[in-house]
Design goal:
The structure holds two protein chains of two kinds.
Chain A (H helix, E strand, L loop, with lengths): L23 H11 L6 H17 L5 H7 L4 H7 L4 H9 L9
Helix pairs in contact in A: 1-5, 2-5
Chain B lengths: L5 E6 L4 H16 L3 E6 L29 H4 L4 H15 L5 H10 L3 E5 H6 L13 E3 L1 H7 L4 E4 L1
Parallel strand pairs in B: 1-2, 1-5, 2-3, 3-4
Classes of the chains: A mainly alpha, B alpha/beta.
């Protein structure tokens, strides 16, 4: 299913504008569009950790924080979410485009 | 996202404050799916030299952005103080120490190259450089690698 058919609000680049609208189906649809579907247990480990962390701190975590604390290291992050992990993780986790430098 | 885009960064300075711009940009490029290579030369070699990388400094002397009289910046201990302050602020921003940063950008797929001429000039061998260094290459080889890339000299 394409993200446009999910009846949620997306910004011009396809990021979810409100993380509260997120569902696991949205993650699968985003993954499809990013060319990384189907999501594996390792993808979900990242997505779930990111969502918990973002809910806890109110901020989308940096890629460095994800690689240090989610249990998935930098190399694997780039394998799971190739060509732009920051963007792909944020889209799948239902967050706007990350603005951080790291 | 931007399939063909490519970035090549020459790091020629070895102070702590000049180590970060290249690392941050290379890492940002990789986070966006842009290819990136770092080429270290001249004083930039300190950044990838095993016994120097953890001791890079930011010096107040000759740096007008420190907003202090030059003679104050030259007082004993001022360089260490400025260095400690900068490291503290970077850590607050979740920016890793240089050694960890090199490992991070390398794991992210960024190429790390040392300049052959600078290595010879400073009598540095492969084993003197951090493990992340992919190769020691000459200027021509670097230019070959950088073909089609946006080039940045720091």
């Amino acid at each position: 299913m394409a993200t446009k058919e999910l009846n949620v609000s997306l910004d011009a680049e396809g990021f979810l504008t409100d993380p509260n609208q997120w569902t696991p189906e949205i993650a699968e649809a985003m993954a499809e569009e990013e060319g990384i579907a189907p999501l594996t247990e390792r993808h979900w480990k990242v997505i779930n950790w990111v969502r918990e962390e973002a809910a806890r701190t109110g901020e989308f975590p940096s890629l460095r924080a994800i690689s240090k604390r989610s249990g998935v290291d930098t190399k694997e992050l780039y394998e799971l979410f190739p060509k732009g992990p920051a963007r792909k993780i944020a889209r799948c986790a239902g967050y706007p485009k990350p603005k951080g430098c790291i | 996202m931007s399939g063909e885009r490519k970035l090549a960064i020459i790091c020629s300075k070895g102070s702590l404050d000049m180590a970060y711009p290249g690392l941050i940009l290379a890492n940002a490029a990789r986070m966006m799916g842009i290819e990136a290579d770092l080429f270290f030369t001249f004083w930039g070699m300190d950044i990838i030299t095993k016994d120097k990388v953890d001791h890079l400094k930011v010096t107040p002397v000759g740096n007008p952005a420190m907003h202090m009289p030059q003679f104050v910046g030259g007082l004993p201990g001022m360089t260490d103080m400025a260095t400690a302050m900068m490291k503290r602020e970077l850590e607050k921003l979740d920016i890793p120490p240089v050694r960890e940063f090199l490992q991070m950008v390398h794991d992210a797929g960024c190429g790390i190259y040392a300049c052959k001429m600078a290595a010879e000039m400073m009598h540095l061998k492969r084993e003197d450089l951090v493990d992340e260094v992919d190769d020691i290459i000459g200027a021509m080889e670097f230019l070959e690698k950088a073909e089609g890339a946006q080039l940045l000299f720091i």
